[in-house]
Amino acid sequence: MTTIRESDFVQSIADALQFISYYHPRDYLQALAAAYEAEESPAAKDAMAQILVNSRMCAEGHRPICQDTGSVVVFLKVGMAVRWETRLSIQDLVDAGVRLAYQHPDNVLRASIVSPPIGARKNTGDNTPAVVHVELVPGDQVEVRLAAKGGGSENKSKFTILNPSDSLVDWVLKTVPTMGAGWCPPGMLGIGIGGSAEKAMLMAKEALLGHIDIQELKARGPADPIEELRLELYEKVNALGIGAQGLGGLTTVLDVKILSFPTHAASLPVAMIPNCAATRHLDFTLAGNGPAVLEPPRLADWPTIAYDATAGARRVNLDTVTREDIAAWQPGERLLLCGRLLTGRDAAHKRMVDLLNSGEGLPEGVDLRGRFIYYVGPVDPVGDEVVGPAGPTTATRMDKFTEQMLSRTGLIGMVGKAERGPAAIEAIRRHGAVYLMAVGGAAYLVAKAIKSSRLVAFGDLGMEAIREFEVEDMPVTVAVDSRGESVHTTGPAQWQARIGKIPVAVVG
Question: Are 448 and 389 in contact, with CB atoms under 8 Å apart?
Answer without folding.
Answer: no
